[in-house]
Write a structure and sequence with these properties.
Number of domains: 3
Number of helices: 7
Number of strands: 7
Structural class: alpha+beta
Strand order of the largest sheet: 3-2-1-4-7-6-5
Order of helices and strands: HHHHHHEEEHEEEE
Helix content: 25-40%
Largest sheet: 7 strands, mixed
Length: 261
């Protein structure tokens, strides 16, 4: 059995954190160890979905005749979009500050257009993340990123006492690769797949691996992609065993399930 110090080193936390987790497990079981206890004081005024809606509104074009949104205007707009009867400017200020959002700074990237379709897709994804964990229907975030591979033109100098390691500013281009990243929304699991390119077949192969290799016992796999994975409404392909796989898509969320042969 691992000691408290060994556990703390393996997960990069302090021994007091491990001790508190052990105590919560003894007192409340696995749920008590994983979930925080209710804390005193009033709860947050805005839910996660409402906070996302506030951020999207702050990043949209201000009302006609205004150069930028004011806190009072954002509070009024959120009252119209939600069930709140009133919101204070301080609530809006704190939520924007927590998101490090300064919409008056033009150098920041903001959503260029917030319309009913955008809000509907955003709510669809937020509703998915708000659902409790279901092993039979896991939620997986799926992203991809091209990356450039570089090499050294000169051998780096190793570090020495009082001197850091040194590398030359010149580098050699060694081509590019693509990274597909899977991330489970409800458990500490991720997987990275490296490919030479990112074609539709590469996406389809990732979905096959998701179904057959990573979640073979799940009834349905719900995927939140960084961009549409399927052309049109569905992509159907056969693997080497001839089993049919279908990837159906609704706005912002894709679902993969097995079909007949």
């Amino acid at each position: 059995m691992s000691t408290t110090e060994e556990i703390a080193r393996s997960v990069s936390v302090g021994t007091s954190t491990v001790y508190r987790a052990k105590r919560r497990f003894v007192e409340g079981g696995i749920d008590g160890a994983i979930h925080d206890r209710p804390r005193p004081g009033a709860g947050r005024k805005l839910t996660g979905k409402e906070e996302a809606l506030l951020v999207a509104t702050a990043c949209s074009s201000p009302p006609a005749g205004r150069a930028q949104w004011t806190l009072e205007q954002l509070a009024g707009a959120l009252v119209q979009l939600t069930s709140h009867s009133k919101l204070s400017r301080e609530t809006v200020r704190r939520r924007l500050s927590e998101n490090d959002l300064k919409a008056w700074q033009r150098k920041m990237w903001c959503v260029p257009k917030v319309d009913s379709e955008y809000v509907a897709r955003m709510e669809d994804v937020l509703d998915l993340y708000a659902e409790p964990a279901r092993p039979e229907a896991p939620v997986v975030c799926f992203d991809e990123s091209p990356t450039q591979m570089i090499g050294e033109t000169r051998t780096p100098s190793p570090p020495a006492p009082g001197k850091p390691a040194k590398i030359d500013y010149e580098y050699r281009r060694n081509g590019t690769a693509n990274l597909f990243v899977f991330l489970d929304a409800h458990r500490p699991w991720r997987h990275v797949k490296v490919t030479d390119q990112r074609t539709a077949l590469d996406f389809a192969e990732c979905m096959r691996e998701l179904v057959d290799d990573h979640y073979p016992s799940a009834e349905r796999r719900r995927v939140n992609p960084s961009r549409p994975l399927c052309r049109g409404t569905s992509v159907v392909f056969r693997n080497e065993l001839g089993a049919l796989r279908v990837c159906s898509q609704r706005p912002g969320v894709s679902e993969s399930a097995e079909g007949g042969t």
